[in-house]
């Protein structure tokens, strides 16, 4: 297996059915690609076997593979070398015609599997002598299935009810109850929910792939606690977990392209699976009047709190704030105190006075006061990511000399986990990139701004595996304005905005999607920072996250047309409106 911590492999077809054999080999299926794939390492899969429509997969104790052949209504059996042995099952069970076997689980007692049908789906059983029976029926698209040996019950993802059900096998009629109701997509579209594959660890942690939510969850059955993570796969279909790794399957849609994500892990470190979401919610506009091209009216506290909660429910786990953002830190802190933002990654910032740039002691005193005040407002004992807010008027050489010592002290005091810098100008990165104390950077970049990305500095930043947050992707809203309504020195932006509009039309995208996709798909970008002050803006950005990629010829056109945009147009503090 690759030694990388977290890798994602692109495949031609949407993927399903992840399993790992006793030798550590990873296998996945692609239902519409008609293949069972084996991971060869180095980000490559090869065809291990073929099947008409392979879906859920289970490896038995003797290393045989059993495959749900969904479109044929059958279950197929393969030996450990990929040779097809037989059609293990096809047909009816107690008058129920199996239409679409989806997932299965095999143990000493036999095989349990799901038949995925709307409203009339079923869970079925085949014992060792191949006698069959219906375990539960009239389910609304039963999907992933696992067996809990300790409690003698089944857990099944009932997709269109957006829940995990428990089927009690201790009683003859196998009563069905809700184990856990899952978070719903803010759009209220049931197709954006749909829990899919399941995996149960021996310690009672139930892992859930949440197809429509772009998430995967870990549900602690004993503690009845649900932790949610960003799958980084638009449609996350299934999950497999062992001591070494987590394997996620799915893709951008069906039939494809597909994705397989492999996250290396430690058995006792489920928290290591937590990732910064691809979107980060910026809170400046929620805490004070901020927007340039809008009404500048602050959002009511209740509305701001609703926006934060809806973002979290939609899978956003990273929240950017600062001491200077008005009530933003206290808004987050109130929700954290109410346990509404469990395991969220909070990024906050501090800066110091001009005098502190030349005084080590003053810099430390001001930094400590700011960070401690942030922790108090945020109701945290330790800040996950702490950034220094670099101001262009600061003496950068002085900052460069003092800041590492300040961050080292903050870490010694256990006040922060990770340190970094939020730069004012993209090229300020050059002053901080070489110091290993900085693991995260926040940088203003947009589709017109190639000052950093056109240099070797960007490649160096990416190669060093730094956490990169990109902000100002719409250039404070300028990129979304009507070119004919610009005033002051922004009139000079008119030809660039018209070119941007023409490119968007040619690419069959909205301007906002073009701007978003450009940053989202840029190599090395960890998370795109968005700053909505209204729920509608939040939902639009969430929808943009799942939008199309920009064609390669369009990317080349962007690079050419926007190679020399004037500095004052790219720098909001130089605008004269």
User: Could you give me the name of the CATH homologous superfamily of the largest domain?
Assistant: TolB, C-terminal domain
Number of domains: 2
CATH architecture of the largest domain: 6 Propeller
- Largest sheet: number of strands, sense, barrel closure: 8 strands, parallel, barrel
Mean pLDDT: 91
Proportion of helical residues? 10-25%
The count of helical stretches stands at 11
From the helix content, strand content and strand pairing, which structural class follows? alpha+beta
Low-confidence stretches: 267-274
Highest-level CATH class of the largest domain: Mainly Beta
- Total strands: the figure is 34
What share of the residues does DSSP label as strand, in percent?
25-35%
What's the shape?
elongated
Distance between the termini: 56 Å
- For the CA atoms, what is the radius of gyration? 26 Å
Q: Look up the CATH topology of the largest domain.
A: Neuraminidase
Strand order across the largest sheet: 27-28-29-30-31-32-33-34
Features:
single chain, 577 residues, alpha+beta, Neuraminidase, TIM Barrel, eight-stranded parallel β-barrel, four-stranded antiparallel β-sheet, 21% helix
Show the helix and strand layout.
Blueprint: E1 6-11, E2 16-20, E3 26-30, E4 35-41, E5 44-50, E6 54-59, E7 65-69, E8 74-78, E9 84-90, E10 92-93, E11 96-97, E12 101-107, E13 110-115, E14 121-127, E15 132-139, E16 142-148, E17 153-158, E18 163-168, E19 176-181, E20 195-200, E21 205-210, E22 215-220, E23 225-230, E24 235-241, E25 245-251, E26 258-264, E27 279-282, H1 284-287, H2 301-313, E28 318-320, H3 328-337, E29 345-350, H4 360-378, E30 383-389, H5 396-412, E31 416-422, E32 438-444, H6 456-463, E33 467-471, H7 494-506, H8 511-520, E34 527-530, H9 535-545, H10 552-561, H11 567-570
């Amino acid at each position: 297996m690759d030694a990388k911590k977290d890798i994602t492999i692109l495949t031609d077809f949407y993927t399903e059915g992840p399993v790992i054999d006793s030798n550590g080999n990873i296998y996945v299926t692609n239902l519409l690609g008609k293949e069972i794939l084996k991971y060869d390492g180095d980000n490559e899969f090869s065809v291990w076997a073929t099947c008409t429509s392979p879906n859920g997969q289970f490896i038995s104790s003797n290393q045989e593979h059993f495959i749900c052949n969904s479109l044929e209504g059958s279950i197929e059996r393969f030996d450990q070398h990929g040779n097809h042995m037989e059609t293990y099952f096809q047909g009816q069970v107690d008058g129920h015609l199996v239409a679409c076997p989806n997932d299965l689980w095999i143990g000493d007692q036999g095989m349990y599997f799901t038949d995925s049908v709307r409203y009339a789906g079923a869970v079925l059983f085949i014992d060792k002598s191949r006698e069959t029976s219906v375990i539960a029926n009239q389910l609304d698209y039963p999907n992933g299935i696992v067996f809990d040996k300790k409690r003698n019950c089944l857990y099944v993802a009932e997709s269109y009810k957006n829940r995990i059900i428990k089927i009690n096998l201790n009683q003859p009629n196998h009563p069905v109850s809700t184990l856990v109701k899952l978070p719903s997509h803010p759009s209220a579209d049931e197709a954006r929910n749909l829990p899919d594959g399941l995996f149960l660890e021996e310690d009672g942690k139930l892992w859930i792939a949440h197809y429509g939510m772009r998430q995967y969850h870990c549900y602690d059955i004993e503690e009845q606690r649900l932790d949610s993570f960003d799958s980084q796969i638009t449609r996350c279909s299934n999950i497999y977990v062992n001591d070494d790794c987590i394997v996620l399957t799915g893709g951008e849609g069906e039939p494809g392209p597909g994705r397989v994500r492999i996250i290396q892990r430690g058995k006792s470190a489920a928290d290591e699976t937590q990732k910064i979401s691809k979107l980060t919610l910026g809170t400046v506009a929620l805490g004070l009047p901020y927007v340039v091209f809008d009404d500048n009216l602050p959002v009511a506290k209740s509305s701001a709190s609703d926006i934060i909660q809806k973002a979290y429910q939609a899978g956003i786990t990273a929240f950017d704030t600062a001491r200077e953002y008005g009530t933003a830190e206290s808004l987050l802190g109130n929700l954290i105190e109410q346990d509404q933002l469990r395991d969220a990654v909070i990024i906050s910032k501090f800066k110091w006075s001009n005098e502190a740039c030349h005084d080590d002691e003053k810099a430390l005193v001001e930094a400590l006061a700011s960070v401690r005040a942030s922790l108090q407002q945020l109701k945290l004992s330790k800040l996950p990511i702490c950034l220094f807010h670099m101001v262009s008027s600061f003496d950068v050489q002085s900052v460069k000399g003092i800041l590492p010592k300040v961050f080292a002290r903050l870490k010694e005091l256990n006040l922060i986990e990770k340190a970094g810098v939020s730069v004012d100008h993209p090229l300020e990165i050059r002053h901080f990139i070489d110091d290993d104390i900085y693991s995260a950077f926040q940088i203003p970049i947009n589709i017109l701004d190639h000052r950093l990305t056109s240099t070797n500095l960007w490649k160096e930043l990416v190669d060093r595996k730094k956490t990169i947050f990109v902000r100002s992707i719409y250039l404070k809203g300028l990129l979304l304005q009507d070119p004919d309504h610009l005033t002051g020195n922004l009139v000079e932006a008119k030809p660039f905005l018209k070119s941007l509009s023409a490119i968007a039309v040619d690419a069959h995208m909205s301007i906002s999607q073009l701007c978003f996709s450009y940053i989202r798909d840029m190599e090395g970008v960890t998370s795109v920072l968005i700053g909505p002050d209204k729920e509608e803006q939040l939902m639009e950005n969430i929808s943009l996250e799942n939008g199309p990629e920009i064609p390669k010829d369009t990317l080349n056109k962007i690079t050419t047309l926007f190679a020399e945009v004037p500095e004052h147009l790219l720098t909001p503090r130089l605008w004269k409106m």
